[in-house]
Amino acid sequence: MDDPLVVHTPGDREIVLSRLFEAPARLVFAAFTQPELLVRWYGARGWSLVECDVDLRVGGRWRFVSRGPEGTRMVQAGAYRQIEPPHRLVCTELFDDQSYPGETLVSHEFSELAGRTTVTTTLLYATPEGRDIVLRYPMTRGVGQSFTRLAELLRSTTTTGGEQR
Length: 165
Known about the structure:
Blueprint: E1 6-8, E2 14-21, H1 25-33, H2 35-41, E3 48-54, E4 61-67, E5 73-84, E6 88-95, E7 104-113, E8 116-124, H3 128-136, H4 139-159
Antiparallel strand pairs: 1-2, 2-8, 3-4, 4-5, 5-6, 6-7, 7-8
Helix pairs in contact: 1-2
């Protein structure tokens, strides 16, 4: 049984998402930062990452192009602000056709205990209105589905291909 995605809204501009994965932090961090892994899990059911550019250095940029149902296209990009493998990854995020104002600050914390890793993602929006708009979208369902795909990838990575826990 997959661990569910837990969602909190501690402040008027924040959404905090957390989920436990059955894999060490170094593998989970790699899945968030290596294009060859990102394309295998990133996106809700029915969506796929068709372009994935990662310049993993402070100040480096990232850009993801996803394709969804009926050819729907979604582009998001940003810059890396903090990189501390395998514990912390902080970047900005902006969508090409964003419906709310400003850049979002995205902080991923990877906390490992006994070979299992909890990912806690804090999304800090530019305005309370932006956060409220995002909460009306099916974002948490999409992230939940994406994280289920990540859990499956991590399960296969830790049991095959010489990468053992």
